[in-house]
């Protein structure tokens, strides 16, 4: 079965550039092209939602020049939001937008509002996102509402991802095997896939490969799996 929602940890941009003796920012430039390719390929493959980890709450510790380059990349991406509107895609930004430069945060909110009722592919971009920050923010939101006890549904609704499904599959490129503070609650029962492919090399062929691997996985959600029959 094709996954309905795939979340990507886009790792390996820096190494892709370094291997070619190019500045790291060139890797992010090619990584942006890979993101755009993957969005189109996902729509063509019938996927409903894609999430991309673009900037984590920990990425602020990178050199200022790299942060500035990434912020400019986000500005350029946001400037093309009309393309997403024309394609009927819904854009969702998750993370603490308040800590991003004001113009980027405003632009994210505007893009979300404009595309909110679109019915095509949902494209989720995690910006200044970290699961620990998300959970802390959710708890504070619930306390501010005066709650002294909460249900699982209260927590789901207070997360940045309240309007999107949980990922069926989390893919990390770049060869590292960890989740790096990404969708920790939402991926509780996601399938995980780690590939050595560096993110700038990711394309439709790679996407089809990960869909194929996913389709062979048996998801049991703590049960015994759909095909289990009583002996
Ligand atoms: C991790 O690779 C990648 C990032 C921290 C940035 C990802 C951002 C983009 C691909 C830009 C596109 C985003 C949008 C929304 C247009 P790394 O730099 O840590 O790679 P390395 O491990 O090889 O050094």
Question: What is the secondary structure topology, with strand pairs?
Answer:
Elements: E1 5-9, H1 13-18, H2 24-44, E2 49-56, H3 64-79, H4 81-86, E3 90-94, H5 102-115, E4 122-129, H6 131-144, H7 152-158, E5 169-172, E6 191-194, H8 204-215
Parallel strand pairs: 1-2, 1-5, 2-4, 3-4, 5-6
Helix pairs in contact: 2-3, 3-5, 6-7
Farnesyl diphosphate binds at residues 10-15, 28, 31-32, 35, 54, 59, 73-74, 77, 125, 174.
What structural keywords apply?
alpha/beta; Undecaprenyl pyrophosphate synthetase; 6-stranded parallel β-sheet; 6 strands; binds farnesyl diphosphate
Specify the structural class. alpha/beta
Q: What does the average pLDDT come to?
A: 96
In the CATH hierarchy, the architecture is 3-Layer(aba) Sandwich
Order of helices and strands: EHHEHHEHEHHEEH
User: Largest beta sheet, briefly?
Assistant: 6 strands, parallel
* Overall domain count: 1
Number of distinct beta strands: 6
Question: Would you give an account of this structure?
Answer:
With 231 residues, the protein is an alpha/beta fold. The chain has one domain: Undecaprenyl pyrophosphate synthetase (3-Layer(aba) Sandwich). It has eight helices and six strands, in the order E-H-H-E-H-H-E-H-E-H-H-E-E-H. A six-stranded parallel beta sheet has the order 3-4-2-1-5-6, with helices on both faces. Helix 3 (64-79) runs parallel beside helix 5 (102-115) and helix 6 packs across helix 7 (152-158). The longest helix is centred in the first third of the chain and has 21 residues, at 24-44. The chain is globular, with a radius of gyration of 18 Å. The structure holds farnesyl diphosphate (FPP).
């Amino acid at each position: 079965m094709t996954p309905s929602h795939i979340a990507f940890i886009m790792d390996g941009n820096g190494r892709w550039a370094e291997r070619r003796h190019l500045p790291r920012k060139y890797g992010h430039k090619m990584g942006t092209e890979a993101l755009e390719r993957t969005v189109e390929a996902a729509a063509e493959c019938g996927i409903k939602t894609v999430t991309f980890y673009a900037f984590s709450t920990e990425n602020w510790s990178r050199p200022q020049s790299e942060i500035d380059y990434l912020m400019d990349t986000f500005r350029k991406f946001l400037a093309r939001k009309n393309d997403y509107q024309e394609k009927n895609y819904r854009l969702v930004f998750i993370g603490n937008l308040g800590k991003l430069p004001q113009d980027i945060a405003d632009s994210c909110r505007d893009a979300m509002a404009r595309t909110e009722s679109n019915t095509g592919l949902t494209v989720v971009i995690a910006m200044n996102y970290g699961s620990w920050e998300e959970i802390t923010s959710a708890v504070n939101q619930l306390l501010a509402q005066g709650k002294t006890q909460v249900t699982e549904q209260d927590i789901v609704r207070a997360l940045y991802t309240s309007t999107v499904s949980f990922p069926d599959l989390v893919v990390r490129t770049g060869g590292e095997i960890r989740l790096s503070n990404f969708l920790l609650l939402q991926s509780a029962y996601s399938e995980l896939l780690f590939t050595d492919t560096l993110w700038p090399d990711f394309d439709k062929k790679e996407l089809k490969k990960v869909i194929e691997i996913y389709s062979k996985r048996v998801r049991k959600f703590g049960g015994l799996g759909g095909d289990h029959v009583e002996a």
